[in-house]
């Protein structure tokens, strides 16, 4: 989507930065182009852009997206330097503008998420997400929960980044959040995503020995090879974006440790298939008895299915 720095709408697809930040990035692009002896038209051809767009980037009047930056980096033989410069500018501008994780995530190249309790936003079906909201906030209607970031749905068929790697505890798959049919649909969606090209899933099976990830969920978002953020979701509010380089590296190292403890992607799919079968397509038929309490059947059925 073409966006210019003069547009400051709150509904923009990703956060706008100050002109000076993007001007500095544009100056770097122009300096590399001129050092290589390329004209604007030649760079435009190599970067699959129009000459007008290249002039906008170099003047700082257009904020390039991730794919724009990668094409410029390739056309100028910058070996990742311009891509990294774009990522640093994008992160700095976004944080300065008060961006949430939902604003920044679409421009990430890789997203790695650890889910010990429930599956993360973006992977959820609408029915499962609604059931989870009812569990978390039983006294509030869905439309009264505006404080959580609206994470874009992960699409398994859309080509290209962001690429996702999810590590999930088996308990996050079997926890009886919704009815068996909703649970099965949710797990089937996760399996469909895991068999595509953009999502890899690793599961920590029940019985796994204590590991460093017991304290809670977190994400890491890589915008280029050298520039990342970490994120910790909260039950209320927008969660916390981690910007300190030492802590970001700590989260990245923790994710790698968990990946070493978890099952392989192939074994995780096998376990996921087994978990899906614990939640039948149709409710099990039960003998008629007396003394049943009304309104408890869905919860009891899901709890029984979760126990397998």
TrEMBL record:
Q: In which domain of life is the source organism classified?
A: Bacteria
CDD domains the UniProt entry points to: HTH_XRE
- Annotated region described as Disordered, given as residue ranges: 47-68, 286-308
Q: What is this protein called?
A: Transcriptional regulator with XRE-family HTH domain
What the entry lists under InterPro entries is as follows: Cro/C1-type_HTH, DUF5753, Lambda_DNA-bd_dom_sf
Which Pfam families did the record assign? Answer: DUF5753, HTH_31
Quote one Gene Ontology molecular function term.
DNA binding
Give start and end of each HTH cro/C1-type domain: 29-83
